[in-house]
What we know:
Layout: H1 11-25, H2 27-32, H3 39-61, H4 64-71, H5 74-99, H6 103-125, H7 131-151, H8 156-173, H9 181-205, H10 210-213, H11 216-242, H12 245-251, H13 254-266, H14 273-310
Helix pairs in contact: 1-11, 1-13, 3-5, 3-9, 3-11, 4-9, 5-8, 5-9, 6-7, 6-8, 6-13, 6-14, 7-14
Amino acid sequence: MVLTPVKTLDKTGLVAAVAAYGLWGGFPLYFYLLGRSGSVEVVAHRIVWTLVFCVAGISLIGAWHKVRTVLGDRRLLGTLLGAGVLVSANWLIYIYAVHGGHVVDGALGYFINPLVTVGLAVVFLRERLRPLQVVALGIGVAAVLVLVVGLGRVPWIGLGLAFSFGFYSLVKSKVGSRVSAFVGLGVETLALAPVSVGFLLFLELGNRSTFTTMSPIYALLLIGTGVVTAVPLLLFAVGASRLPLVSLAFIQYLAPIGQFLVGVLFFHELMPLSRWIGFCLIWLALVVLSFDLVKTARTSGQAEQDQCRVG
């Protein structure tokens, strides 16, 4: 009989993951400070300064050979270009939500995202749903219907965020093992940088740019969009490489919880009864989904231990 040691929770990975999702949870507060800029201008700055941050980081760790490998692979480059378009759309919707007073709708999107990801895996990866996953998706659909009927409109901000990031995750899952988070983000922003720079120059020539017409502190905040974009992703990469998937699945809810609290407590967004019911259904669906994930992980872990004992 061979005994396998119990895997302890990596403290560095835990701190990194909590920090990443905690920062994402506080995003509304940062982008609220950039309310004098249009959403498209903020996204353009975010792309440019994220690229600058990634270039500095890639130079620091000496990973330019990995960038050249990606640029030399047309199929891989095209995949990352598509990922860049999707994540930029996600950024645009989110910043519009913050500037438009829809932070809670943004939080809804990231609560829905795990359900959307499961659905996309079924449609595009031909994965089969387990019974509890079917139940969770059914509850999620019911929640959206409650919100549509109660609010009298489709929660397009939440759905837009969930589906844009869901498709982004789907695309990234195809290249995740071949490209590091740092290099991947750098190439994604590099592909979109020409359009972003052109738009910023257009604003500058038309004297409509907030980068040069506002205070130096405001300009620094725009530059800082690159830092606040890249740092959580790097922390997430550390956490994802050191923690089990089950742990990450629970930690990820810190981000929408934080955004939800910011929207309700800081921005005082209204929460009518129909919205509370919709959110409660979403939370119930996530509980079911999380229970299924834990159950599956335990079953898989037990099976591996049994195989080790037999070996």
